[in-house]
Specification:
3-stranded antiparallel beta sheet; 171 residues; 3 strands; rod-shaped; mainly alpha; single chain
Length: 171
């Protein structure tokens, strides 16, 4: 049986609507639309969460890479400082060997270390060129290195003048 209620017609015998106005929708239809809407909202929220987690992961990875680069750079600076210290020890070994023996061949470690020390300082200067604080500290290190090298040179000169006791007192 067909009835006309406003703008919608429907068939009661089959229960299938032919045309339904928004006012004539059944509660089951609303529940179905509500469920679809909830599922859509759930997917949207999940997608937003996934995007947020992806962005946080990306930023964390960027920070990790930057931190690793900074650590590598710091390690290079420390290694270069160690090399400088080692070359200064070689110079001191040559100086002391010469003071004890008076033989020129004991000056070889000293003479070989001098150009290495200059190169070590140049390497350090290049490594810290991007950091004003480290450049300032390198200036202080340079002053200590110059003082040591001048001391070594002075002790060697005193020993060359055949004054073992005076050279020994300086060491």
């Amino acid at each position: 049986m067909n009835h006309n209620k406003g703008t919608a017609t429907y068939t009661r015998s089959s229960g299938t609507p032919e045309a339904i106005s928004p006012k004539a929708q059944t509660p089951a239809h609303w529940m179905e639309r509500s469920l679809e809407r909830k599922i859509g909202i759930g997917f949207a929220v999940a997608l937003l969460l996934l995007c947020g987690i992806g962005w946080v992961s990306y930023r964390s990875t960027q920070h990790l890479v930057l931190d690793n680069r900074l650590n590598d750079h710091s390690r290079e600076v420390l290694i270069s400082l160690h090399v400088l210290f080692s070359d200064l020890q070689d110079a001191e070994t040559g100086e002391r060997g010469f003071v004890i023996t008076g033989e020129e061949n004991y000056l070889e470690p000293y003479q070989e270390a001098l150009p290495k020390v200059d190169q070590d300082e140049a390497n350090l200067k290049a490594l810290v060129s991007d950091n004003a604080n480290q450049q300032r500290l390198l200036g202080s290190i340079h002053q200590v290195v110059e003082k040591l090298l001048n001391q070594f040179k002075h002790v060697i000169a005193v020993r060359k003048s055949d004054d073992f006791a005076a050279a020994q007192a300086l060491v």
